[in-house]
TrEMBL record:
Protein name in UniProt: DUF559 domain-containing protein
Gene3D superfamilies referenced in this protein's UniProt entry, alphabetically: VSR Endonuclease
Organism listed in the record: Microbacterium testaceum
Length: 231
């Protein structure tokens, strides 16, 4: 479901496989290349996906991934469902599904839901937010609009520490080979700084390993702005 909808799934070294489920009393498929699952006796909630392919309801699919995915990927999956102007689910929907059908793996779904936030635009933003908090930094707000001193809109910030005016963004550099987009980005970065914000750009290599390089960049900006550990 997540792949067909273009939503986040676990990154390498997780190996995606084709999972097909059947509702009891039907038997799960058993064929090469397919992982079969036999679901509880329950009224199906199949939806039409791309090209009319039948796919599982988004909320149910997220819960089913609870038996397979690591915690952070479940958080990113929940973030993806909660995102956008027309989200595929609400936090209440996910909570109701857990309550109705039960949690798995020691309560991993409830933990993931508690860490999920609406408005997140990418799984790397999710990972960055989780890494910062786990290393003892305050939790930033998600996708905050900032304005100039005249009240003009400047930018929407991925992760914002409004009290200290520190803007943190994950920069995947998908436009690195586009000079015009790079120029627009550079003008935007300057506008953020002109609005009185310290702008921290986190690149992919900063998130390698335990993400400590990204944490160091953000911690330094917060310290410059007057934050102190324990606040």
């Amino acid at each position: 479901m997540f792949v067909l909808r273009g939503l986040s799934t676990p990154e390498w070294p997780y190996t995606p496989r084709l999972h097909v489920s059947a509702h009891r009393p039907a038997r799960e498929p058993r064929t090469r290349g397919v992982v079969g699952h036999r679901l509880q006796t329950r009224e199906p909630a199949i939806e039409a996906g791309p090209e009319g392919i039948p796919i599982e309801n988004a909320v149910r699919a997220w819960r089913q991934c609870g038996r397979l995915w690591p915690l952070d990927d479940l958080v990113a999956g929940a973030d993806a469902l909660l995102a956008g102007r027309q989200p595929l689910a609400s936090a209440a929907d996910l909570d109701a599904e857990i309550t109705l059908m039960g949690d798995v793996r020691g309560g991993i779904l409830r933990r993931a839901l508690n860490l999920a936030r609406p408005g997140v635009r990418s799984p790397r933003e999710t990972r960055l937010r989780l890494v910062l908090v786990r290393h003892g930094l305050p939790e930033p707000n998600v996708n905050i609009d900032i304005f100039s001193t005249r009240g003009d809109f400047v930018a929407e910030i991925d992760l914002a520490y409004e009290l200290w005016r520190v803007a943190v963004e994950y920069d995947g550099r998908v436009h690195a080979e586009d000079p015009r987009q790079f120029a627009r980005d550079a003008d935007r970065w300057a506008a953020i700084r002109d609005a009185g914000w310290d702008h921290v750009r986190v690149l992919s290599h900063h998130l390698r390993g335990d993400g400590s390089a990204a944490v160091d960049l953000v911690r330094a900006a917060l310290l410059r702005a007057g934050w102190r550990p324990g606040q």
